[in-house]
Amino acid sequence: MLEVLIAATLANAGLSGTVLERGTRHKLAGIEVSVAALERSALTDAEGRFSLDDLPPGELEVVIAAPGYLRFVSREKLTDNERLEVIYRIEREFSSGLEATVEGERDRQELSHTRLGPAEFSQTAGSQGDALKVVEDLPGVARTSPIGGGPLVIRGSNAVDSGVFLDGHPIPLLYHFYALTSTFNSDLIGAIDYLPGNFGVEHGDFTGGIVEVKSRTARDELHGYVKTSLIDAGGLVEGNAGIKGLNFAIAGRRSLVDPVLSSVSNDRFSFTTAPKYYDAQARLDYNPPGSAHSFSLLALISDDQLGVLVTRPSDADPNSSGDAFSEVQFSQLRLKHGYHSGNFSLDTSAFLGTQYTDERYANRTDVRVNEVQAALRSTASYRFSEVVTGSIGLDVNNDHFRYRARAPANGIPREGDTRAALPLRHGCHFSNITSGSLQARDEAGFSGDSNPAERQWGYYLMRISQRG
Q1: Range of lowest pLDDT (81-85, 117-121, 245-249, 366-370)
Q2: Which residues contact 108 (CB under 8 A, 6 or more apart)?
Q3: Residues 74/33, Cβ–Cβ less than 8 Å
Q4: Residue 254 carries which DSSP code?
């Protein structure tokens, strides 16, 4: 909302005014008001005031991009020898206590398709502002852990029969330690699509449901934030990289609970590695001016570690003692190209990821799994009319597993067990034309079983939709 107050005579053209919060009229300090075309900007003071001097006469675009508020754009016409006085009212991304929201039924093209946007992320009760925690509150989704988090169970199907994707490729872990926080920064998420059934052939490997997380592109205005809580600290910075159309975003988070819990111990147990996690994301988006092509590069990493030393067995199980360690780490690199011209579009993405799992107990049981994934996905679409769209695609996947396992013959080691642990090492390679299982077993009865899902070489889809 914009109010033009006065135009005062001045030697040079200028722009000044006040920035208020829409709905509350609070004066906002530290808000950047910029004229991108001139690379000029000013920050509001404690009274919400700003001033830009020595501006050329003519029409200028004024932009306000502040964390927590919707992007505000206004076009002002400046006259020579005058200063324009304005009031800008910017709106919060989420509703305030002065707003009332009325929900009602509306016509939907796909009854089995639910899309959540940033407004739902911030307003859903119990989500703590974490976008991916909202998934657990969707209809038909069950929690596999009593404290939340873990693999998703959609409409009663097995967890492995449902898929969770980030921009068309799988993400192995949604949450740190099941329920603390998500492994991907919520401020980099643009939408979440939930398909509990009746999804297209492009997700044909699954029989349960699909959760598709869509990241947003980086903004061109430079801004960021740093925040901390009792459990972690993190921040985000994004803006233009110095080339028109090339924007970047960098985000990271690190747990704060491990320095505190590392000092917690008693005569029965102590933490050798307190619950520790971190995640980071880096993104580059390039949209050449006047071109139908677009490019994006996304890199992400996540790591969870926990180590416990049990020095004295519990009364319930006198044989339980020793150390335990667990680590889950994954990293991914995603490259995407898009071409959109008229009714034709072509989207291609390449994916390379690694995942490492380490589970150890009492220096006797040791399971380590290394996985390398590579994938190429391309979809071409053409809109024949307002109600008919045809798509054809190619989906190539290649998974390589290597695992090392060592365990006693009777499972978990017990006091007085003299049989030594037997090692098992095995490597296996899966491609998209492989199905079935590969199994190795030693004399002690410990086995390793890897069963990949079938992968499709390609797919085609004819989508017909009715518009009212």
Answers
A1: 117-121
A2: none
A3: no
A4: E
pTM of the model: 0.64
Backbone angles phi and psi of 369, in degrees to 5? -130, 125
Whole-angstrom Cα distance, residue 182 to residue 130? 7
Provide φ and ψ at 401, rounded to 5°: -110, 145
pLDDT at 187 over 70: yes
Half-sphere exposure of 85 (CA within 13 A, CB side): 7
**Cα–Cα distance between 182 and 279 in angstroms, integer?**
9
CB 25 within 8 A of CB 3: no
pLDDT, average across residues 57-75: 89
Output phi, psi for 134, to 5 deg.
Answer: -65, -30
- The predicted pLDDT at position 160 comes to 78
Domains observed in the chain? 2-90 (2.60.40.1120), 114-215 (2.170.130.10), 223-464 (no CATH)
- Distance CA(175)–CA(12), nearest Å, equals 56
What one-character DSSP code corresponds to residue 38? G
Let me know the angle formed at the C-alpha of 13 by 8 and 16, rounded to the nearest 5 degrees.
Answer: 65
The amino acid at 11: A
Residue 427 pLDDT greater than 50, yes or no: no
Determine the Cα–Cα distance for residues 263 and 273; give it in Å rounded to an integer: 11
Picking from 111-115, 165-169, 293-297, 460-464, which range would have the lowest pLDDT averaged per residue? 460-464
Per-residue pLDDT, 31: 92
